[in-house]
Amino acid sequence: MIKRLMYLLLVSVMVSCCLSMPAKADSSGSTKYPIVLVHGLSGFDTALADYFYGVKGALAAVGSVQVYTPQVSGYETSEARGEELLTYLEELSAISGATKFNLIGHSQGGIDSRYVASIRPDLVASVTSVGSPHFGSGTADFIKDSPLEGITLSIGNAVGTFLAAATGDNSQHANAMGSLEALNSTDAATFNAKYPEGLRQGACQETPSYNAGSWWWPNWQSDYSVNDGAHQVNGVAYYSWAGTYNPLFDSNVLDLADGLLSVTYLTINEANDGVVGRCSTHLGKVIRDDYTMNHADEINGMFGLRGLWSANPLQLYKDHARRLTAVGL
């Protein structure tokens, strides 16, 4: 009886010790270089909520604790915004001691990041674009030189002025025409000729599928590499991912962004996220260009509201931190 009690006591002590031991922290996404999240058109670092909503926390969960969110002008050309981003990185490098940065830019932020990597590759470890219109946006093409241009620019300038006040940064510019010039396909081609690093060469291809399994147990996969650009240029690694969606089936009735995006979706004559067409998003290694997401979902926008069948954007950022870590970035 005594032996049995001793045995039970020993087991209970061992179980208690195991339960009290802290779980080992996940460091699978602990990147060598800090991550810098670069916002897009009309964006902000933190105003009413984080632009990259919940992304910092998701990255911290896999070990990426050095994550920064600069504020650049909400409405400006990509060269002007890129210069603001470059100044931020130079100051951050001086303060933190970091020699390079992993830039992850959403929408126009991906284009700004390309500019910095092109003129200062020594400061950039990688550029990742998320839903960026590298070859222009059909929505911007639709607005430019149309009756909608005037009112769109007025609204954009007003929003830009508001964001400057809301974020307490009066140095920001409110140049909506600059953004329109940055995002239409004609001016995008001019920009690309000056800063071509990582871009897809040639026409956009349909994504082929192949059977990675066997005839009796098929495992169909998509080969997104057909639209890859150069994976590395001047020591900078390039990546991209993006979403496409159908407003009828992939929306959330509580998501206010869907109301606008379901309209702008119609201005683009290919699969798109409501702002940017699939073929315009390709840069470097194309991770995927058709996640079920709209343009706001790509940053977990609208406080994380998204369609029932949409991809989890926070998981994509965590996966990418692990990807960068795996290759020593």
3D structure, described in words:
With about 325 residues, this protein is an alpha/beta fold. It contains 10 helices and 9 strands. The strands form 2 sheets. Strands 1, 2, 3, 4, 7, 8 and 9 form a 7-stranded mixed beta sheet that branches. It starts with a helix and ends with a helix. This is Triacylglycerol lipase. It comes from Colwellia psychrerythraea. Keywords: Hydrolase, Signal.
Summed up, the domain count is 1
List the helices and strands in order: HEHEHEHEHHHHEEEEHEH
- Number of DSSP E strands: 9
Which structural class do you get from the secondary structure elements? Answer: alpha/beta
Helix content: 25-40%
Spans where pLDDT lies below 50 across 5 or more residues? 1-21, 146-169
CATH topology: Rossmann fold
Shape: globular
Secondary structure topology:
Elements: H1 2-20, E1 35-38, H2 55-60, E2 67-68, H3 78-96, E3 101-106, H4 108-119, E4 124-130, H5 138-143, H6 148-166, H7 176-183, H8 185-194, E5 209-211, E6 220-222, E7 232-233, E8 236-244, H9 256-264, E9 285-292, H10 313-326
Parallel strand pairs: 1-2, 1-3, 3-4, 4-8, 8-9
Antiparallel strand pairs: 5-6, 7-8
InterPro entries: AB_hydrolase_1, AB_hydrolase_fold
Signal peptide: 1-25
Protein name: Triacylglycerol lipase
Condensed summary:
The chain is an alpha/beta fold. The chain has a single domain (26-203, 216-326), classed as 3-Layer(aba) Sandwich (Rossmann fold), CATH 3.40.50.1820. The protein has helices at 2-20, 55-60, 78-96, 108-119, 138-143, 148-166, 176-183, 185-194, 256-264, 313-326; strands spanning 35-38, 67-68, 101-106, 124-130, 209-211, 220-222, 232-233, 236-244, 285-292.
